[in-house]
Amino acid sequence: MRLRFAPSPTGNPHIGNVRTAIFGWLFARKHGGKYLIRVEDTDRSRRTEGAVESMLESLRWVGLDWDEGPDVGGDAGPYVQSERLDLYHDLAQRLIESGHAYRCYCSPERLDEIRDTQQKRGDEVIGYDGRCSELTATDSSSREREGAPSVVRIRMPDEGTSALDDIIFGHLEFENRLYDDFVALKSDGFPTYHFASVVDDHSMGITHVTRAKEWISSIPRHVQLYSAFGWEMPEFAHMPVILAPDKSKLSKRHGAASVMDYRDMGVLPSALMNYLALLGWSLDDKTEVFSPDELIEAFELGRVSRSDAVFDIDKLLSINGQHIRRSSDEELADHLGRYWNDSPPDFDVTSTPDKIAQVTPLVRERLKTLNDAAPLVKFVFTEEVPVDPTDLVQRGMVPESTRHALNAVRERLRDLDTFDAPSIEEALEPLYEDMGIKRGRLLGTLRAATTGQRVSPPIFESMEVLGRERTLNRIRKAIDAL
RNA sequence: GGCGCAUUCGUCUAGGGGUCUAGGAUACCACCCUUUCAAGGUGGAGACACGGGUUCGAGUCCCGUAUGCGCUACCA
Predict the structure, then answer these.
(1) Looking at the DSSP assignment, which residues form a beta bridge with residue A89?
(2) pLDDT score of A352 more than 80
(3) Is the preceding omega at residue A361 within 30 degrees of 0, hence cis?
(4) Which of A82, A178, A259, A389 is the most buried (most CB within 10 A)?
(5) How many beta carbons lie within 10 A of that of residue A34, not counting itself?
(6) pLDDT at position A467 over 80
């Protein structure tokens, strides 16, 4: 089996495209097939600088890999359509010679005109009227001598139907007479999508074509092309699209739409892949969290839905939280390190990689995104911590009693043999009753004193990570501030 | 206009004639747990677009309507 993802490099990789890529990749990997990337850059006016690179980077980040492609090469290359023009020209010529195609010299203006009158007239079929299809070889060569610009058009049959059995949509059948003779080669010498994709899918040995469902209407053109060449058709699987919350097609104007936007938000690649796969596919009525390997194992193209799905950021974040909680200490520390490297928090994290590992277990249960981690653990990475008397002095207490309590805590902690969370908790246990302070109140005071934050990981664990010296110093400072 | 595809809780979905007084997840609400925040637990509210058929019986099959989306380019 050979599958391909065929992006056109017109901008930032969109999560809709990426999901289509993921479905094809999952299918290929599940069945031990090959997966390749082919760049469809046949529209010169829409090319944008660096688009190929950012597309590949996005795909790699989300966890895809490929056996052949523009960056890794392969036997079926080149993998960029603008480098395959000779192939398209040769094959177009072959179709002209076999009578399946012809040169058309009609101007864009004439094309607009006929469309207009057809529309005004309310014609059933709107499109090229086939004027140049009758041109003789001598007509043609005289036009060529004049240097007239031309396109190559494929003849569509006037009768019969074109059909295929789609893996996802089932039987799809269309009347040929409703389709006009379409352009295969543009006047600038570049092929159209229809022509290039059929030629390349065949010459690259693609066995399963996965693509967005907006191509369903083009099926007759592609069927006729395969038939004109006498090529065997691959299998097809058309995919539903991803919608924005307002049910329009997802786009930049809806905010985060590119893969990298989600990386920047602190989403794990495995979670993005998981969520995207769930948008239009499901295993059963309960399983939702999948690692990439589990997805490969479970995925079935036939279970992909036929209807479009609305993208729901809350659900993505929920899945992300579950991936974070599922990850090991090492994995999460690694993710956090990378994330803080790309999007540094407002404190220095670079010189203290070991602290990231210490802090990881404290935050795991508390994160929806990696971005949530910094405010929770800032106190570990900073020397000075803000001291706010109003947070220090809990409800029902006064500065004097607070100072007294903190002193008692200091004494007990100073004498501890081992400064770890269970020992700290145990050492403080008698204090609540002795001093007549509610446990929650005293712990609140300690949180303010040692972390300088209203919200933090559990306080005993936090103190352990801080270490005895820093903990005692901060308590000392809090006492002084009162 | 023509052609095509789709339509189950707000959202993602399970469902392929009886087991559906429609299941799960997310979001929301309440309670429990609890040193903050989370996480976790329990419970609540919430859907088969509409109308005709077929059938003993329809969310599931057929037809129509409505709505949404796509195509109808020398864009992909």
Answers:
(1) none
(2) no
(3) no
(4) A259
(5) 19
(6) yes
Chain A 448-467 residues whose Cβ is under 7 Å from strand B: 454-460
Q: What DSSP line would sit under A308-346, residue for residue? A: -EE--HHHHHHHHHHHHHHS-HHHHHHHHHHHHHHS--S
Q: Kindly state the average pLDDT of the residues A168-195.
A: 95
| Mean per-residue pLDDT over chain A, rounded | 93
- Tell me the pTM: 0.94
Q: Is A389 helix (H, G, I), strand (E, B) or coil?
A: helix
Q: If DSSP codes are grouped into helix, strand and coil, which group holds residue A452?
A: coil
Residues of A belonging to the active site: 252
Place A463 in a pLDDT band, splitting at 50, 70 and 90.
Answer: very high
Q: How far is the CA of A170 from the C1' of B61 (A)?
A: 17
Sort A276 into a burial class: Cβ within 10 Å, 0-12 / 13-18 / 19+: buried
DSSP state of A453: -
**What is residue A306's predicted lDDT score, i.e. its pLDDT?**
95
Amino acid found at A189? G
In which element (H, E) is residue A170 found? strand A170-175
The Cα–Cα gap between A367 and A360 comes to 10
For residue A221, what pLDDT is reported?
A: 97
Produce one character per residue of A14-33: b if its CB has 16 or more CB atoms within 10 Å, e if not. Answer: bbbbbbbbbbbbbbbbbeeb
Protein CA A396 to sugar C1' B26 (Å): 40
Cα of A302 vs its chain's centroid, Å = 22
